[in-house]
């Protein structure tokens, strides 16, 4: 190849291309392995220095050209272009294209093409990281702070608020240490503001969650006042929320408005939520006109269910009937933005489609849609029940207007529920006839509504002790919807009232199979087992119910009663103690505790609970009698007098209470008062023998002249009593004799018949 290359002859004249053979040693790649500085740069960060500028400016080349100390080897062009310096058509072409700055005339001698440097072997290992360096310590500390913030958030989500706060405080302490270390090593501009913001924000949130509102407000103030934090003004919403919890409504409104001013109009959703908070705060302060302005603005810009409901409440508070109607119509018109139920019904037998529909039928999105729909129905029903009695002349007309509006909306199925609520309102007003008439209108409606109406009718007739009608409507409710637990429970109640406890238990069990959370059925089946004397099963039912209704006084009393029937007074006392912790003023529970302690022989504890029962309900004769007897037994007869006097007021026709009062006076030594009491009793009950006996005895002891008069009356009464007893005895004897004669004749007849047999 070289025989076609002719070098230009060297002359003493000025060469146009002179100087191009001189090159900068920087471009000498063959000696890089022996270059100490270059190898040091590869192993360490020494090579991050700025590049050294070449002394001779290079000319840009569009294709790589190899350089070296030796002669140059001309390479054939891949495009078929004649090589530089080659002879073409007898003319020597000047070597201009290969004599660029930094390249020699000589070509490479024996060097292979190795752009990646693979022939040099593996790179030397990197130097070990120095963990004691300040930069590394800062990096590790920053990592630890981030971990603490994450742990704090996780603890909060798990409900461990105290641990979350401790982690947040620890993160704050370590973050301050980190800032100080950074200031010593680097400039203040290199401080991680995002980490500082997240640490402070998390600490303020944990303070608020632990109801340490003063500390939370101070932490939020630190964030808000720091101008280096962008968008920190939004946290004034959180400060407003804290003031709202503290019922400092004026400051809450102030901070909400400050936050609203600092949020740009492009963040429409955030501004709407803040305005909703402002409206709610105005309602709490009673400033209904300002609240109406806030909610009206929200309903015009971005209508939602909460704002619509609060607007109705505000108009209800100011008594504006027309505006209540308009606000109700706006609430009805709020779009739900959820899919129809038809979407979840398979239109074909395609197995793939069926699998997809089955997968999304109860996923999180579907559950959220159900919750949103249930919330909308709750708001609409509550608003209708609120405004129906006031928007028209009567609540019935108001309900009819609400029903018509609902029928014309997307909530058509709520119209029937409103009608049933109308009947319930009649019940609250004690207008049973109107309630029954309203409910009977549903007998020709669809099965679900018919079942609900029949269930209510059955319950009404059951309360009026018309068990036949109650049973009839209970059957109608069950036939309309066999899976209605309320209908099955009512049917069980009617059977229970007729004494068929086994069949009642079956209905209650079926109700529980349809709805395991039907507490009424579970309670009633416990009562049924008590009637059947299946106490263990009854106890199981009530204990299950107690796990669902932790503070139900009725359930606690039933458990205690079952233990009492099982002759376990200690357990009964324990459950009754739980009962009075829930309802400490229940006189019946207190008297039952006193009775149990009395049966155990603990008179002092029995007296304590009987006395508490008397204090809350001083008309229980059994409690009064026990307290009076207790004071007599303990020789405090004068204290027993007040209890027996109260008993005589409650039962004035019962002579025994007045006799007990007189007896207490006599035992305490107040004979004159006892005599006067006995005389008063004798005037009211002149035929009472016991009163006359005590009068005779007292008059004899005191030496009064009336003793003869009372003795005569006593003899006459005793004689009359004896004659009366003889007559009763003779009457019994005569009736017994006639009965024996009848039995004897019947017996002789039987015997005759028997003797006549062969």
From TrEMBL:
Gene Ontology cellular-component annotations: centriole; centrosome; ciliary basal body; ciliary base; ciliary tip; cytosol; intraciliary transport particle B; motile cilium
Subcellular location: Cell projection, Cilium, Flagellum; Cytoplasm, Cytoskeleton, Cilium basal body; Cytoplasm, Cytoskeleton, Microtubule organizing center, Centrosome, Centriole
Keywords: Cell projection, Cilium, Cilium biogenesis/degradation, Cytoplasm, Cytoskeleton, Flagellum, Repeat, TPR repeat
Chain positions covered by the region annotation Disordered: 1-28, 112-136, 725-758
Residue spans of the TPR repeats: 233-266, 272-305, 485-518, 519-552, 553-586, 587-620, 621-654
Gene3D superfamilies: Tetratricopeptide repeat domain
InterPro entries named in the record: TPR-like_helical_dom_sf, TPR_rpt
Molecular functions per Gene Ontology: kinesin binding
PROSITE patterns: TPR
Pfam families (alphabetical): ANAPC3, TPR_12, TPR_6, TPR_8
A Gene Ontology BP annotation from the UniProt entry: non-motile cilium assembly
Subunit structure: Component of the IFT complex B, at least composed of IFT20, IFT22, IFT25, IFT27, IFT46, IFT52, TRAF3IP1/IFT54, IFT57, IFT74, IFT80, IFT81, and IFT88. Interacts with IFT20, IFT22, IFT25, IFT27, IFT52, TRAF3IP1, IFT74, IFT80 and IFT81. Interacts with IFT172. Interacts with IFT57. Interacts with IFT46. Interacts with IFT70B. Interacts with C2CD3. Interacts with ENTR1 (via N-terminus). Interacts with LRRC56. Interacts with DZIP1. Interacts with CCDC38. Interacts with CCDC146. Interacts with CFAP53.
Function: Positively regulates primary cilium biogenesis. Also involved in autophagy since it is required for trafficking of ATG16L and the expansion of the autophagic compartment.
Name assigned to this protein: Intraflagellar transport protein 88 homolog
Species this chain originates from: Enhydra lutris kenyoni (northern sea otter)
């Amino acid at each position: 190849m070289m025989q076609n290359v002719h070098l230009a002859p060297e002359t003493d004249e000025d060469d146009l291309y002179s100087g191009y053979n001189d090159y900068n040693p920087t471009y000498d790649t063959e000696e890089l392995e022996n270059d100490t500085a270059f190898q040091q740069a590869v192993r360490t960060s020494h090579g991050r220095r700025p590049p050294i500028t070449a002394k001779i400016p290079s000319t840009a080349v569009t294709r790589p050209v190899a350089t070296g100390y030796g002669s140059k080897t001309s390479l054939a062009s891949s495009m078929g272009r004649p090589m530089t310096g080659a002879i073409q058509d007898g003319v020597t072409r000047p070597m201009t294209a290969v004599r660029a700055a930094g390249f020699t005339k000589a070509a490479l001698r024996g060097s292979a093409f190795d752009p990646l440097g693979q022939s040099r072997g593996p790179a030397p290992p990197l130097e070990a990281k120095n963990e004691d360096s300040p930069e590394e310590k800062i990096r590790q500390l920053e990592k630890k702070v981030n971990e603490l913030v994450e742990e704090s958030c996780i603890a909060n989500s798990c409900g461990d608020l105290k641990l979350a706060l401790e982690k947040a405080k620890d993160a704050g302490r370590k973050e301050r240490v980190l800032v100080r270390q950074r200031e010593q090593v680097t400039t203040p501009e290199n401080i991680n503001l995002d980490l500082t913001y997240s640490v402070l924000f998390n600490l303020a949130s944990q303070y608020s969650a632990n109801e340490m509102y003063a500390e939370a407000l101070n932490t939020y103030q630190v964030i808000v006042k720091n101008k280096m934090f962008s968008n920190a003004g939004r946290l004034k919403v959180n400060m407003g929320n804290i003031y709202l919890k503290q019922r400092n409504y004026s400051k809450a409104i102030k901070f909400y408005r400050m936050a609203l001013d600092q949020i740009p109009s492009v963040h429409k959703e955030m501004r709407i939520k803040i305005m909703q908070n402002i409206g709610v705060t105005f309602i709490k302060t009673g400033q209904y006109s300002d609240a109406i302005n806030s909610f009206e603005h929200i309903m015009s810009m971005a209508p939602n269910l909460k704002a619509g409901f609060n607007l109705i409440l505000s108009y209800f508070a100011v008594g504006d009937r027309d505006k209540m109607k308009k606000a109700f119509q706006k609430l009805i018109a709020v779009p739900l933005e959820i899919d129809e139920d038809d979407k979840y019904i398979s239109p074909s037998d395609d197995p793939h489609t069926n699998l997809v529909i089955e997968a999304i039928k109860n996923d999180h999105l579907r559950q959220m849609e159900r919750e949103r729909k249930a919330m909308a129905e709750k708001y609409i029903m509550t608003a209708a029940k609120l405004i129906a009695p006031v928007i028209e002349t009567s609540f019935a007309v108001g309900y009819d207007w609400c029903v018509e509006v609902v029928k014309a909306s997307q909530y058509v199925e709520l119209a029937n529920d409103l009608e049933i609520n109308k009947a319930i309102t009649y019940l609250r007003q004690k207008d049973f006839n109107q309630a029954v008439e309203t409910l009977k209108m549903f007998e020709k409606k669809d099965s679900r509504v018919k079942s609900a109406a029949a269930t209510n009718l059955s319950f009404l007739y059951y309360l009026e002790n018309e068990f036949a009608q109650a049973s009839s409507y209970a059957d109608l409710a069950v036939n309309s919807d066999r899976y209605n637990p309320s209908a099955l429970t009512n049917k069980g109640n009617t059977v229970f009232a007729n004494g068929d406890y086994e069949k009642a238990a079956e209905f209650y069990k079926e109700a529980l199979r349809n709805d395991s959370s039907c507490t009424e059925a579970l309670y009633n089946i416990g009562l049924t087992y008590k009637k059947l004397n299946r106490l263990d099963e009854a106890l199981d039912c009530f204990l299950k119910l107690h796990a669902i209704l932790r503070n139900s006084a009725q359930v606690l009393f039933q458990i205690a009663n079952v233990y009492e029937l099982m002759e376990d007074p200690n357990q009964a006392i324990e459950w009754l103690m739980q009962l009075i912790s829930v309802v400490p003023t229940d006189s019946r529970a207190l008297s039952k505790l006193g009775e149990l302690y009395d049966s155990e022989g603990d008179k002092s504890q029995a007296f304590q609970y009987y006395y508490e029962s008397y204090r809350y309900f001083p008309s229980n004769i059994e409690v009064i009698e026990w307290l009076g007897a207790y004071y007599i037994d303990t020789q405090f007869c004068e204290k027993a007098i007040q209890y027996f006097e109260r008993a005589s007021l409650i039962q004035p026709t019962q002579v025994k209470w007045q006799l007990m009062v007189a007896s207490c006076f006599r035992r305490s030594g107040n004979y004159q008062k006892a005599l006067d009491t006995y005389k008063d009793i004798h005037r009211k009950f002149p035929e009472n023998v016991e009163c006359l006996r005590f009068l005779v005895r007292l008059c004899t002891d005191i030496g009064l002249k009336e003793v003869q008069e009372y003795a005569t009356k006593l003899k006459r009464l005793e004689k009359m009593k004896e004659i009366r007893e003889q007559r009763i005895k003779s009457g019994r004897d005569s009736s017994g004799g006639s009965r024996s004669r009848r039995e004897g004749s019947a017996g002789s007849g039987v015997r005759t018949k028997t003797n006549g047999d062969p």
